[in-house]
């Protein structure tokens, strides 16, 4: 069984922000009203001097048409970067150069596929891949009801309808993104050999995204499971083994680490950013991120969990 080599001191005593419930936009059914608007005009109160702005969800998909509009630029964020942490004395070398922070949305079929590229040495998000996903087995009526219920709650149903593409096309675009040359000419994935990632690993908050949902969606989309989805890091298991403290989800980890959650909970791109902030704190405290789950090469349906002490 894999183990973490260094035990961390316990995280801060549980800390409940008095304004925590207003730090995340909770669902309120308001329609979006203008092209290239990404969320409703409701920004969480994170302090008088907060610079937080909602993401432009056209920009994250490379489709923002208002980059020369100062009002739009001032209103919406056009970067997936996260604040830096100044205290890095416990930072340790990692096995991976990059972490691909993934948080899928969609219970019936995948509706949103966001991935943040987190650089282990600089502790920053250096790139993003984000697509909304159009279901293939649902009627248009059911899709419209589903999207109005989920993304209409955040006022982003219009951007979903404007940009959503089928899962197979999402994966094709994602693989092109993985093949991009990074600093020094390296690529995260080439498709050669066993098809695994190069110097990178997926990071998820739980096993559901890659253990359950991606294989289900591949079956629905009648496509083979891509080989780079064979292993991943479940941040819940890393947190449990490093801090020796159980946290069942993203919000509980953020509360215990005194990280104020930003954005809309269950909007995948915002949840991915918040998960990246938890990852950043774990690394800063000295955690070593190791693969927590692997599929069998001969039997992809069989998943082996590598940590004996894990969130079940």
UniProtKB/TrEMBL annotation:
GO molecular function, one term: nucleic acid binding
Pfam families associated with the record: RNase_T
Transmembrane segments: none
Domain Exonuclease residue range list: 98-288
InterPro entries: 3-5_Exoribonuclease (IPR051274), ERI-1_3'hExo-like (IPR047201), Ribonucl_H (IPR013520), RNaseH-like_sf (IPR012337), RNaseH_sf (IPR036397)
UniProt keyword annotations, A-Z: Exonuclease, Hydrolase, Nuclease, Transferase
UniProt-listed SUPFAM superfamilies: Ribonuclease H-like
Signal sequence segment: none
Family annotation (SMART domains): EXOIII
Name assigned to this protein: Polynucleotidyl transferase
Provenance organism: Perilla frutescens var. hirtella (Perilla citriodora)
